[in-house]
Automatic annotation (TrEMBL):
Keywords: ATP-binding, Nucleotide-binding, Transport. CDD domains: ABC_Mj1267_LivG_branched. This is ABC transporter related protein. One of its GO terms (molecular function) is ATP binding.
Length: 236
């Protein structure tokens, strides 16, 4: 059974076809990288999967259930988590409180223990009682990921999660992703950092002008002429 299946999904904004007939299947425990030049439709794809936007056409299945057109909170409850490029934290709450707040709709009783596990996994134990606005940018990104982990999602969408993050914290994020994947979590990862894509992704999907133009392992897509054109032909 696939975790996620997109069947000919499209979405336009005015005259712009942001996502154009994308079909994609993601298997359990896979880490799939989504790459492509600016404006190629990566974020819109995440917004379609998480229910922020409704597709104009096509179907989206999560664990074989048709979630096309569902509201974001229902999709999140079903087991889809997501980080944002800019962390969405409660700035005046502590790291620990931010984690507890993320569990409000989930396993509230188990939340204190889970919050401490998540702080430990992300090496944030020492800033447990610091307010979010006192954390470094990288620590805030880790905490954003931690909030997602509080809900134990089956599928996690990471949107440039290591961008601007200190190399040490970047390693923490990568090892957390690997550990979670080994425990069965599936990941879709939007990334501009090709070294990260190469080291962590099992499979890579390349988008250009809203379409999937190539898919394969890092070595396969690196040798694909469509990919060279998408990146080099447009000077990105
Ligand atoms: N809400 C919106 N209203 C109008 N146009 C939009 C909207 N969201 C996205 N677009 C357009 O759709 C196209 C795809 O944008 P999208 O943000 O999905 O690309 P991206 O690959 O994520 O880019 P980046 O790497 O810069 O984040 C762009 O032309 C963008 O301007």
């Amino acid at each position: 059974m696939s975790v996620l299946e997109l069947d000919q999904v499209s979405r336009a904004f005015g005259g712009i076809q942001a996502v154009d007939g994308v079909s994609l299947t993601v298997a359990p425990g896979e880490i799939v990288g989504i790459i492509g030049p600016n404006g190629s439709g990566k974020s819109t794809l995440f917004n379609l999967i998480t229910g922020v936007y409704r597709p104009d056409t096509g179907r989206i299945l999560f664990q074989s259930q048709d979630i096309t057109g569902w509201r974001p909170y229902r999709i999140a409850r079903l087991g889809v988590g997501r980080t944002f490029q800019i962390p969405t934290l409660f700035q005046h709450l502590t790291a620990y409180e931010n984690l507890l707040a993320a569990a409000v709709e989930g396993d509230w009783r188990g939340a204190p223990r889970r919050a401490d596990e998540v702080l430990h996994l992300l090496t944030l134990d020492h800033v447990r009682d610091e307010r979010a606005d006192n954390l470094s940018g990288g620590q805030q990104k880790l905490l954003e990921l931690g909030r997602v982990l509080m809900r134990d999602p089956r599928l996690i969408l990471l949107d440039e999660v290591t961008a601007g993050v200190h190399p040490r914290l970047r390693e923490v994020i990568l090892s957390a992703v690997r550990e979670l994947r080994d425990a069965g979590t599936t990941f879709l990862v939007i990334e501009h950092d090709m070294e990260l894509v190469r080291t962590i992704c099992d499979r890579i999907v390349v988008m250009d002008f809203g379409q999937v133009v190539a898919t394969g392992t890092f070595d396969e897509i690196a040798a694909d002429p469509h990919v060279m054109e998408a990146y080099l032909g447009r000077g990105v």
